[in-house]
Model the fold of this input.
Amino acid sequence: MKGFLFRHRFWAIAALIFAGFSCYWLDPRNVAVAALEGLGLDPESEAFGAWVRAAFGFGALLGLLAACLRTWAAAYLTSDVVRDPSVRTESLVADGPYRHVRNPLYLGLLLLTFGSALAASRLGFAFLTVGMTALTLAFISHEEEGLATARGAGYDAYRRAVPRLLPSLRPRVPPSGRRPRWGQAFAGESFFWVFALAGAAFALTLDGRVFGGICVGGMGLHWLSALAWARRKGRPPASPGPSR
Done:
């Protein structure tokens, strides 16, 4: 089951996000608004709108952190590795964020999920955060099993030294000397930058049409750029979203 989910992780993530935001049909109350009211803030007061924007601004900040972290991590990999439907075990990366946390790409995915879930309903927030955490742990477990089998003692030592998802403030392993490639990293993680921009715009305007327009337009550009890159390389285009 973990192998199937890993191979089809883009669609599993997409289905979870769609289902989470569809929970508005069952529970029409936004989780951030409900939480602020639960704290005793008057929804009719002038300050309430500012608090709502601050809550969504915090979600946008998490999205920005997710984009930065994933781009930093992707700079030490390639888009092929990030989006490969199989576990890549030919080498270990011990540079950049991988010196602080073993799974920075998945940590970025969780940050984006928790940030964007503030725009969901109460039920949707619970569905998204719990569901994405469960999916992420399943993906990580599948990858770690493959790496442990393929890399043996080297991966075991790395796993003992570097935290799984909660980053260490100081590097836990020495660098291996791999150089970052920022151009392909920003291009590969443009999905996250689009959502970070859309989240910031939504926090400022509280207009769902602005959020949707930026997401649709940005993802269209992302897909076109991925298609152009694939044609130059003679490869099929990668999935147009986060694969890990």
About this structure: The CA atoms of residues 75 and 182 lie 5 Å apart. The chain has a mean pLDDT of 86.
